[in-house]
Amino acid sequence: MKKLIYNNSLLFAIIWATVIFVLCATPGRFIPSTNWLELLSFDKWVHATMFFILNSLLFLVVVKRAQTKQWMIIYFLLCILYGGLLEVMQAKCFSQRSADWQDFVANAFGCIIAVLLFKKLKNIFTNVERV
User: Fold this and answer.
1) What domain count does the chain have?
2) If DSSP states are collapsed to H, E and C, what string results for the chain?
3) 122 within a domain of the structure (yes/no)
4) Residue 49 belongs to what domain range?
5) Distance between CA 82 and CA 78 in Å, rounded?
6) Which of 13, 36, 57, 103 has a Cα at 20 to 30 A from 72?
7) Is residue 19 in some structural domain?
8) What CA–CA distance (Å, rounded) separates 61 from 50?
């Protein structure tokens, strides 16, 4: 499984970014509402997790292609920008959606966690046989 993820990390990142877009564009009436989840800020953890995964997949592209740290910074900033753009689009373009800047902060938090855990992620995938 690690080999599959490693060898296709860019493809998975594109697919995951598309999934995030679709979820963020989905009208609110199709998103389940559960009051007990609000106590745990479940929505914010979902946002953080989505962007952690996206940023981690892009960081694997850096490892796979032996790119410089500047690319990590670029991918990190692109993920932050993507999270902000989605919130703006929710406010202006998507029906039955509204921007929540706390969601943007949660998105950014997920990206920051990906940066902090990058060495661990790199160690996990360093020994994957390249095809």
Assistant:
1) 1
2) CHHHHHHCHHHHHHHHHHHHHHHHHCCHHHCCCCHHHHHCCHHHHHHHHHHHHHHHHHHHHHHHCCCCHHHHHHHHHHHHHHHHHHHHHHHHCCCCCCCCHHHHHHHHHHHHHHHHCHHHHHHHHHCCCCC
3) yes
4) 45-131
5) 6
6) 103
7) no
8) 17
Q: What is the pLDDT of residue 18?
A: 93
Does residue 32 lie in a domain region?
no
Distance between CA 26 and CA 73 in Å, rounded?
30
With 60 as the cut, is the pLDDT of residue 15 above it? yes
Q: What single letter denotes the amino acid at residue 39?
A: L
Q: What is the pLDDT of residue 119?
A: 84
Task: Check: CB of residue 32 under 8 Å from CB of residue 96.
Answer: no
Average pLDDT, the chain: 85
